[in-house]
Amino acid sequence: MLPNFAQLSRPRRLSDLAGQPVAQAMLGPQLEARQVGPVLLMAGPRGTGKTTSARIVSTALNCEVSPGLEPCGGCRSCQAMARLAPSTETYLELDAGTSGTIDQIRQLVAEASMPVAPGQTRVIVLDECHLLSQAAASALLKTLEEPPPRVVFVLATTDPHKLLPTIRSRCLEIPFTEVPAAAVEARLAELAAEHSLELSGEQVQAIAVAAGGDLRRAMKLLQTSGTPDAFQSGTFLLDTAGGSRELLAARLVLAVAEGDLPKAAAEGRLLFGGQGSRRLSLQQAFSLLGEQLYRLNLLLAGVPAAELQVSAPEAQALAEASQLLTPGRGLAWAEALTSSWSALADAPLADEPALGLVLLRMLRANDQPAAPAPSASPGLPTTPPAPAGPIATPTDAAGWAQAITGLEPGLAALLGKAQLVSLANGLAVLRASSITRQRLQPRLMEAATALGLAIELAA
Ligand SMILES: [Zn+2]
To answer: Is 348 in a helix, a strand, or coil?
Structure first.
């Protein structure tokens, strides 16, 4: 097992913070002047250094030798913070998601107003602060309006827009952004050198891609990718790639769109990759592939890639694939996948050949219903007959109501409970109660395939 890099290499000074020039520029002068706050809002994606920055602020303000931008790192206070065991006089950290009840917030407010020892500053961190209940947030508000002297509040969140406006307006907002891939790679290369790991450029890149701008995740991937020996062997890339199976599924879709079966098969092997409990089941692989095919169909229906809510590399692979396909072909693929699942689920086939057969079927699927297959493909499962006559793709609300009656009765009933919000450009947007949503979600692709539309559940 490799060391816990995320903990070991946590930056102690502002200048060591990776890939956050704006945060550095905003905090630097405050630390230098030893005048911070009193209420900071650190907002940005996970793993980008928000809590780390709060600890840097506390270290900088409470160093007993050289408080300011360059804390000494050796005094009692600096050492305690480095061990993540700071005195609660100077540093308190609370996760609003797990301990943000109104009682806990009241207690925090009480602790905040206890006198602070001379020369010290108390930094109080409220992580995931958007998860506070309205009542808990209100209990905090008064203290934020008039913070006790020498107390700095740091609110950290991935979703600043979910904060009460009255709270947000009290804060100096410091934006954190995804750490650029180059900065992640540089940090990984440094760590590899420090720990004598022989990492190739390709391996470093693979981790950075899988981590998608989350430095903490990148270090976690490095740590969990096995023993130092694993870096020398092929298992490394497999295990690392396992960190982002969604991306592998998207790349697999792209390889099929390119008509490159060997590449698709290789991505498929990676998708299953991993040993023991980390290995995917055929059902999980189908499910991942199905999700990506659904997103591909959304793209083909004109939904912008930015609305897919996937990582940037996934969106790019799917967007490239969509350039190579017609909407009809995208739907035919989804159909090939869903009909294959019922045919293969009980078939006595190992996972890889089963997936390989599905990829072949996708490659052969066309816009038109398949012509009677020439007898040239022995061994390939045949497409089961469509369950009913073809349903005309609806273009308006009346057509929609008509079309869904032609579906399997259970599915028709579920769709009947949902409200059609809009129907345009091959995309139907539905709104439904949470119970209907839960039951409808797993059957969306089936409905989309049968109706010849992309279907989206509005939030
Ligand atoms: Zn110090």
So the answer is: coil
Collapsed DSSP state (helix, strand, coil) of residue 224: helix
| Ligand 1 centroid – CA 61 distance (Å) | 9
Which residue matches tokens 């398949």? 370
Q: How far apart are CA 100 and CA 87, in angstroms?
A: 21
Longest dimension (CA), the chain: 88
CA-nearest of 272, 228, 226, 218 to 248 is 272
CA 70 / ligand 1 centre spacing (Å): 9
Instruction: Using CA atoms of 7, 12, 14, 15 in order, give the dihedral in degrees to the nearest 10.
Output: -90
**Could you tell me if 87 and 22 are in contact, meaning their C-beta atoms sit under 8 angstroms apart?**
no
- Whole-number Å distance, alpha carbon 92 to ligand 1 midpoint, is 18
Q: What is the pLDDT of residues 410-438, one digit of tens each?
A: 788 788 888 898 888 888 999 888 777 87
Q: How many angstroms separate the alpha carbon of residue 66 from the centre of ligand 1?
A: 6
Instruction: Give the Å distance between the CA of 143 and the centre of ligand 1.
Output: 29
Residue 127 Cα to ligand 1 midpoint, Å, equals 25
Q: What are the tens digits of pLDDT across the range 244-301?
A: 678 888 988 998 888 888 888 877 777 776 544 456 777 888 888 999 999 999 999 9
Strands 419-424 and 172-175: unpaired
Cα of 59 vs centre of ligand 1, distance in Å, is 7
What string of DSSP letters covers 117-174? Answer: PTT--EEEEEETGGGS-HHHHHHHHHHHHSPPTTEEEEEEES-GGGS-HHHHTTSEEE
